[in-house]
Amino acid sequence: MDHVKLFTDTSLACSKLITGRYSTSFTLGIRTLDERLHLPVYAVYGFVRWADEIVDTFHEHDKAALLADFRRQTYEALDAGLSFNPVLHAFQHVVRRYGIDREFIEAFLHSMALDLEDQSYHSDLYNEYIYGSAEVVGLMCLRIFCDGDQALFERLRAPACRLGAAFQKVNFLRDIRSDYEERGRVYFPGVVYQRFNDATKSEIEADIKADFEAAYVGIQQLPRSAKLGVYLAYVYYLKLFYKIKKLPAARILGERVRVPDNTKVLLLLGSYFRYRLSRL
Q1: CB 87 within 8 A of CB 47
Q2: Which of the listed residues 55, 117, 165, 264 has the most CB atoms within 10 Å of its CB?
Q3: What percent of the chain is predicted at pLDDT more than 90?
């Protein structure tokens, strides 16, 4: 028995378990990818999820120290090609296999560190944070989808960034109350929580709409192995965006908008039929 392979396979299975426990929506999207892409994308999600947990969950601990240790272990795993943290072992395996850029990893960890401090998000810092917290995650996945095709990666790089930005901005809009009440921050530049109104909301929505439109152009050019899964994530977030868009600002400050599970199933079916009919 190849025990090294068993160790790696078991580590990848741990990332799959983490994804299933933390995000039913993301798991559903991964399952619609070609099967060979499942475990690599689970590995990326597991890494991202664990870093996010450090920042958002363990308030009774020194989160800066925890994140610094996680960062150190990440680079040790990447350098050695081994970690006894199964999440980091699975991640380094995928980084090496698909040539995921360390710059993406560094940008992601930098954005996680930004969340540990009180920040006033002016435009440059806002764009920097979105790049590191969302766009590079999409770029990591794009490396997997392109599987060594550098020309395809460069062609789809900008749309992938716009898709990640759209997702993150929708999250910011949906979670504007909890981000302010629990973390004392509003991510949108120049927006004062107490003066958040319909006009401000409309400006933000126009920016998000432009991101979605630019991203769709890239989705149409994805390899068939990845197209349905990415499109499903796109239509899910677009549905969430439209639900938010219909509500006045006061409602957004008073409730967290969700897409019901039965609607997710309908979105999956609709996406599948569009995919099968080659209408994406």
Answers
A1: yes
A2: 165
A3: 74
